[in-house]
Amino acid sequence: MLTSCMRSALADEGVNAAPNNYSDDEVIWKDTLLNLIFAGKDTISAALAWFFWLVATNPAEQEKIRQEIGTSWKFTTIEESNKLVYLHGALCETLRLFPPVPFQHKDPVEHDIFPSGHRIGPNTKTVLSFYSMGRMESIWGKDCLDFKPGRWIDAETGRVRTEPSFKFTAFNAGPRSCLGKDVSFIQLKIVAAAIVSRFNIQVARGFSVTPSISVVLHMKHGLKVKVSDYA
């Protein structure tokens, strides 16, 4: 998308920056697809690793997910994947507790004032810890450290409860929201459902999980598990 914007700006100045034999629409589609592929490669794998660790250490929740999915799940349509409400809640819980991008910084172009009343000057970097925000009692309640997929399900309708993007910040918020949010959930559901419906996952005895301090929240030593067929 950044490439497309740069080309558009150059075009406004009379410079042809589009590759030969490509129309403007084709260039935008190509840039968008590349953006989704590169941005989602590490973040999706990191989210899945944390998801499998959480369900392995919360067997009761894993069984609820399995009951919803069944033991012979196959991906058919996006509409069918949207019916996996409890799995969606489990993935949201994973992203809340272990956001693949754990922190980000912003800096205003002009003087601004936070809702708290604090003033901030131009080009002053403010670091936002999405990891910490997902674990704050003031935002998520006293059970903020618990893995509870049910918090994402409306008790009356049985549907997924939508939280404001400025509260659930795994996909950023405002004009900088992630373009691949819907695609990410589809990918996560396909892999998670295919594995949970067919296999039991147990964390290796004595293995300790440690987050890696980096731009993407990987596990420092990976995830060692014992995988067996689900009978």
Write a concise keyword list for the protein shown above.
231 residues, mainly alpha, two-stranded antiparallel sheet, 42% helix, 10% strand
Polypeptide structure, described:
The protein is mainly alpha-helical and 231 residues long. 42% of the residues lie in helices and 10% in strands. It has helices at residues 2-12, 24-56, 59-69, 78-81, 85-97, 130-133, 137-140, 181-196; strands at 103-106, 112-113, 119-120, 126-129, 199-203, 225-229. The strands form 3 sheets. It has a two-stranded antiparallel sheet. A two-stranded antiparallel ribbon has the order 2-3. The chain has a two-stranded antiparallel sheet with strand order 5-6. Helix 2 (24-56) packs across helix 5 (85-97). It is globular, with a radius of gyration of 21 Å. It starts with a helix and ends with a strand. The model has no long low-confidence stretch (mean pLDDT 86).
